[in-house]
Amino acid sequence: MITLRFVTSDDFISRAISAAEYGFWATHVETVLDDGAILGAYIEDGVIIRPPDYDKGTRERELLVSLGTTAAEERAYNAFLRAQLGKRYDLTAVEAFPLGRNWQ
Prior knowledge:
By secondary structure, the protein is of the alpha+beta class. It has one domain. It has helices at residues 12-20, 71-84, 91-96; strands at 2-9, 28-32, 38-42, 46-50, 59-67. The chain has a 5-stranded antiparallel β-sheet with strand order 4-3-2-1-5, covered by helices on one side. Strand 3 (38-42) and strand 4 form a beta hairpin.
Protein backbone atom coordinates (compact mmCIF):
# COMPACT_ATOMS: atom_id res chain seq x y z
CA MET A 1 0.00 0.00 0.00
CA ILE A 2 1.15 3.54 -0.78
CA THR A 3 0.00 6.39 1.46
CA LEU A 4 0.04 9.95 0.17
CA ARG A 5 -0.20 12.93 2.51
CA PHE A 6 -1.88 16.05 1.16
CA VAL A 7 -1.14 18.97 3.48
CA THR A 8 -1.13 22.72 3.93
CA SER A 9 0.51 24.90 6.53
CA ASP A 10 0.01 28.33 8.00
CA ASP A 11 2.89 30.08 6.24
CA PHE A 12 3.57 32.49 3.38
CA ILE A 13 4.60 29.81 0.88
CA SER A 14 1.46 27.73 1.47
CA ARG A 15 -0.78 30.79 1.12
CA ALA A 16 0.97 31.77 -2.13
CA ILE A 17 0.63 28.26 -3.56
CA SER A 18 -3.04 28.14 -2.59
CA ALA A 19 -3.65 31.48 -4.31
CA ALA A 20 -1.93 30.20 -7.46
CA GLU A 21 -4.14 27.09 -7.31
CA TYR A 22 -7.28 29.25 -7.17
CA GLY A 23 -7.83 28.45 -3.50
CA PHE A 24 -7.36 24.66 -3.51
CA TRP A 25 -6.42 23.82 0.06
CA ALA A 26 -3.64 21.22 -0.41
CA THR A 27 -0.34 22.90 -1.18
CA HIS A 28 2.06 19.99 -0.75
CA VAL A 29 2.04 16.23 -1.33
CA GLU A 30 4.31 13.80 0.47
CA THR A 31 4.60 10.06 0.98
CA VAL A 32 4.15 8.41 4.36
CA LEU A 33 6.72 5.65 4.76
CA ASP A 34 6.04 2.36 6.55
CA ASP A 35 7.60 3.67 9.78
CA GLY A 36 5.44 6.84 9.70
CA ALA A 37 8.24 9.14 8.53
CA ILE A 38 7.45 11.60 5.74
CA LEU A 39 9.35 11.69 2.45
CA GLY A 40 8.93 14.85 0.42
CA ALA A 41 10.61 17.61 -1.57
CA TYR A 42 11.14 20.92 0.21
CA ILE A 43 12.50 24.18 -1.18
CA GLU A 44 15.03 24.61 1.60
CA ASP A 45 16.25 21.00 1.90
CA GLY A 46 15.45 19.19 -1.34
CA VAL A 47 14.19 15.62 -1.13
CA ILE A 48 14.53 14.34 2.43
CA ILE A 49 12.83 12.20 5.06
CA ARG A 50 11.34 14.05 8.02
CA PRO A 51 9.70 12.88 11.25
CA PRO A 52 5.90 12.49 11.14
CA ASP A 53 5.29 15.60 13.28
CA TYR A 54 7.80 17.92 11.58
CA ASP A 55 5.06 20.46 10.79
CA LYS A 56 3.02 20.10 13.98
CA GLY A 57 3.20 23.81 14.82
CA THR A 58 2.22 25.13 11.39
CA ARG A 59 0.07 22.38 9.85
CA GLU A 60 -3.48 23.56 9.16
CA ARG A 61 -4.93 20.55 7.39
CA GLU A 62 -3.92 17.14 6.10
CA LEU A 63 -5.53 14.29 4.25
CA LEU A 64 -4.02 10.79 4.08
CA VAL A 65 -4.94 8.79 1.01
CA SER A 66 -4.01 5.11 0.84
CA LEU A 67 -3.66 3.53 -2.57
CA GLY A 68 -4.08 -0.19 -3.01
CA THR A 69 -1.10 -1.55 -4.91
CA THR A 70 0.59 -4.81 -5.64
CA ALA A 71 3.77 -5.61 -3.75
CA ALA A 72 5.76 -5.06 -6.95
CA GLU A 73 4.20 -1.62 -7.51
CA GLU A 74 4.94 -0.60 -3.94
CA ARG A 75 8.57 -1.76 -4.21
CA ALA A 76 9.04 0.14 -7.50
CA TYR A 77 7.45 3.29 -6.05
CA ASN A 78 9.59 3.20 -2.89
CA ALA A 79 12.75 2.48 -4.89
CA PHE A 80 12.03 5.49 -7.12
CA LEU A 81 11.40 7.76 -4.13
CA ARG A 82 14.54 6.67 -2.32
CA ALA A 83 16.56 7.31 -5.50
CA GLN A 84 15.40 10.95 -5.25
CA LEU A 85 16.82 11.46 -1.73
CA GLY A 86 19.34 14.29 -1.65
CA LYS A 87 18.20 15.87 -4.91
CA ARG A 88 17.53 19.59 -4.93
CA TYR A 89 14.05 21.07 -5.22
CA ASP A 90 13.17 21.90 -8.83
CA LEU A 91 12.78 25.68 -8.54
CA THR A 92 12.85 26.09 -12.32
CA ALA A 93 9.66 24.04 -12.55
CA VAL A 94 7.99 26.24 -9.93
CA GLU A 95 9.08 29.41 -11.72
CA ALA A 96 7.58 28.01 -14.95
CA PHE A 97 4.06 27.63 -13.49
CA PRO A 98 2.94 31.17 -14.36
CA LEU A 99 4.30 30.73 -17.88
CA GLY A 100 1.98 27.81 -18.60
CA ARG A 101 4.63 25.07 -18.61
CA ASN A 102 3.42 21.99 -20.46
CA TRP A 103 4.06 19.03 -18.12
CA GLN A 104 3.33 16.55 -20.91
